[in-house]
Design a protein that fits this description.
The protein has about 130 residues and is α+β, with helices and mostly antiparallel strands. The protein is about 30% helix and about 30% strand. The chain has one domain. It has a six-stranded antiparallel beta sheet.
Length: about 130
């Protein structure tokens, strides 16, 4: 995966004081590297973004938590042409017609699974065709 020369230090700064979220992100990043070796990653102020031609996924720490959300979690975001009907989707919005942004909360390593990676693959293909 293509990343900046400061990627590692930027990630540590992004997750400063959040070791649980960092550990979850590192598992996610390893999965993303294996599945999308030609993608690029960019650490930004509010999220870590994954791109092919366009943004297809992101990881962040929830800033505003709903009452029932876990205290320590990673928010994995991806875009699709349709709304996913899954209890794993914490929030889904349609900012543009036929462009749905989905947010999935991950608080355990086991939640970084084949189903989530399948959705990321679909988002990767959707972003390539935009």
């Amino acid at each position: 995966m293509d990343k900046s020369e400061h990627y590692e230090s930027d990630v540590l700064f992004f997750f400063e004081g959040k070791p649980r979220e960092l550990a979850l992100y590192q598992v996610l990043f390893d999965m993303m590297c294996r599945r999308f070796p030609k993608a690029r990653v960019n650490v930004q102020k509010s999220q870590i973004s994954f791109y092919n031609r366009h943004l297809f996924a992101a990881a962040s720490v929830p800033l505003r938590r709903k009452k029932n959300w876990p205290e320590k979690s990673l928010l994995v975001t991806f875009g699709l042409s349709h709304r996913l009907e899954s209890p794993r989707v914490a929030v889904a919005v349609e900012p543009y017609p036929n462009r749905w942004t989905h947010h999935v909360l991950v608080s355990q390593e086991e939640e970084l699974d084949g189903e989530l990676l399948g959705w990321m693959e679909e988002a990767y293909q959707f972003a390539r065709c935009k």
